Amino acid sequence: MKIHNKKKLLSFLKFKRDFQKFGLEKARSYELILHWLNNRLSRNQFLVLSGILVGSTAGLAGVLLKTLVHSIHHFITTKVHFEYQILFYIVFPFLGIVLTTSIVLTLFKGQDRKGIGAILYEIAQNSSIVSSVKMYSQIVQSAITVGLGGSAGLESPIAVTGAAIGSNYAQTYRLTYKERTLLLAAGATAGIASAFNAPIAGIMFAFEILLTGVVFTDFIPLVVAAVCGSLLSRVLLQEDVLFRFYAREAFNYRNVPYYLVLGVVTGLYARYFVIISQKVEHFIKELQMSRLRKAMFGGAVLSLLCVLFPPLFGEGYETVKAFTNGDTHKIIENSLFRYFEIKDLTIIIFLVLVLLLKAFATSFTIFSGGNGGNFAPSLFAGGTVGYLFAIICQQIGFTEVPITNLVLVGMAGAMSGVMYAPLTAIFLIAESSFGYDLFIPLMIVSILSYLIAKWFSPISPELKSMADQGKIFTNKHDKNILFSLKTEEFIDRYSQSVLENAPIDDLFELVKNGDKNIFAIVDEQKTLRGILTLDDIRPYLFNAEKIPVTITEIMKAPPALIHQEDRPLEILQVFDDTGVWNLPVVDDTNRFVGFISKSKILMSYRQLLKEYSD
Fold first, then answer.
1. Are both 329 and 271 inside the same structural domain?
2. Beta strand ranges found along 564-607 (DSSP E)
3. 299 and which of 97, 290, 363, 398 could share a cystine (Cβ 3.0–4.6 Å)?
């Protein structure tokens, strides 16, 4: 009982100290209430409350973005005659990418890190601290890009927005790294749940891509965030905006061969999509142009593709819904193919060209300066692959082909192969189509596609460039590589040290004659007493009036200590938490052993990763 009262007293004193230290007397009333609750509630209780607040906010952001883009699309595609739509397809996609790039350069100072990789980068490299600007910058950029016809998806920007909301909420209430990461994931979860009205898929997205090592108690904030995001989407969005598919056939085990073949086909297409994306990204980076000129070039390419093939305009969900509703002829009637006689062969040729060019349209949209993600493009492509496969089977002579089901599971297959997220893809389509009886074909197609993608590349291509630089660890394989490294190999045992009671001139001589920029301060038994960096010493080197009497006057405590038994993965986490690049290593008796460098660990990791990939 005394311990409980002592904890309450310490909690009250901490809140009072924070109130004064952080200027909370100027905080808004709701912030004061939440600060008070943070000190009164248990950790789990406050995390559940935080999940509700973060989920609701991220859900509203997702609803806002979807509504904006849908309104723009509705105006462009339904309010004007076909000839004027052609003009719009020429102007708006070009304008969307150029405007987005201009806004990034002028308002957001050129900072345009985007996509799921941006979230993982902040988790791994920035202690899950996301800039507050991302709470609205992603909405502005993606609304302009996709709203005006960019061939990309809104789900990645929504996820980044939700992650920024969760991270900044956690920063406001000074939560720990683990809790901050959890709420960051909760915000992304709510964003995905609101975009697709699929809460389970949102949770799977967080577990499959963002989080590792989550305990059961941490599962609850993700659930409540996903529910809040999905509910807001269901209540506020109109039916035609929702990602919903009502028409489908009952699952028949006799159709399993169709799903087996489709799984292979979607896996191969996903690989094609990835290769084209990488080629286009490399091509655009190599262009000797300013960012604005690259945006103009990419916008011109995108506009041309949209004029020739209108299904490439925007997210493409309406096209997929047309497949499931049997309205394919309407798709062709809105293109230049309307001037040809519409037969089954015409439809096949048209859809093959759309599939081949979708990878180019999406890549030019994203890498030339637009803002969007691969969620919607992969779903669109998968649905198109499924429909094309179905009508080809019919042309060959097969009867009772489950066309709608092939469209739905094709979406899951392509998304699984492009995003490396089979569980997210399975639950997303199951929830969006109310097709829980399709779990077997969804699992067959998604897993086959995923295995094919993993066979070509063990790491998600969207994250490969960052993984090659050692900035993020994308899967368990990366952690296995880190576990294979030995801490002993990275300790610099020739690090320079100086006795704490030595004359200050000894330290200056060490600086002048040595080649290190960090020094250990030890006692006679080599016990670590503190550290000094070159930046700490520099002010005294050329100013005799400021020279301290003893070394202990200027030495400082290290941000953290590394022990010889610590593993590289744990050490990297300490580096991320402290924000430094060199830390002292001590033995069990706190005797100084040497310094360890973060860059040295990352270099070894990159080398092993390269050898594995080769």
1. yes
2. 582-586, 592-597
3. 97
The pLDDT tens digits for 258-276 are: 999 999 999 999 999 999 9
Q: Does some domain include residue 525? A: yes
What's the CA gap between 376 and 350, in Å, rounded?
20
Q: Which residues contact 74 (CB under 8 A, 6 or more apart)?
A: none
Give the domain-ending residue among 208, 236, 264: 236
Measured CA angle at 118 (ends 458, 295), to 5 deg: 105
The token duo for 466 is 């960052």
Q: Contact at 8 Å (CB) between 249 and 405?
A: yes
Which of 136-145, 170-179, 215-224, 571-580 is predicted with the least confidence, judged by mean pLDDT? 215-224
Considering the domain architecture, whether residues 227 and 271 belong to the same structural domain is answered as no
Are 35 and 184 in the same domain?
yes
The answer to whether position 376 is within a domain reads yes
Q: Count of domains in the chain? A: 3
Relative to beta strand 582-586, strand 562-563 is: parallel
CATH number at residue 186: 1.10.3080.10
Domain encompassing residue 357: 255-473
User: pLDDT tens, 323-353?
Assistant: 777 777 677 766 666 666 666 777 888 889 9
Are 308 and 386 found together in one domain?
yes
Helix (H, G, I), strand (E, B) or coil at 499: strand
pLDDT, one tens digit per residue, over 378-411 is: 999 999 999 999 999 988 888 788 888 898 899 9
For the segment 443-466, what is each residue's pLDDT rounded down to a tens digit?
999 999 999 998 888 777 766 655
Does the pLDDT at position 475 exceed 80? Answer: no
Element counts in the chain: helices (H) and strands (E)? 25, 7
Decide: pTM greater than 0.85.
no
- Tokens matching residue 596: 């360890």
Query: Sorting pLDDT into bands at 50, 70 and 90, what band is 433?
Result: confident
Distance CA 18, CA 11 (A): 10
Q: Return the structure tokens found at 240.
A: 């035609």
Q: Say how far apart CA 242 and CA 240 lie, in whole Å.
A: 6
| Residue where a domain stops, chosen among 443, 473, 503 | 473
Nearest to 266 by CA among 137, 95, 384: 384
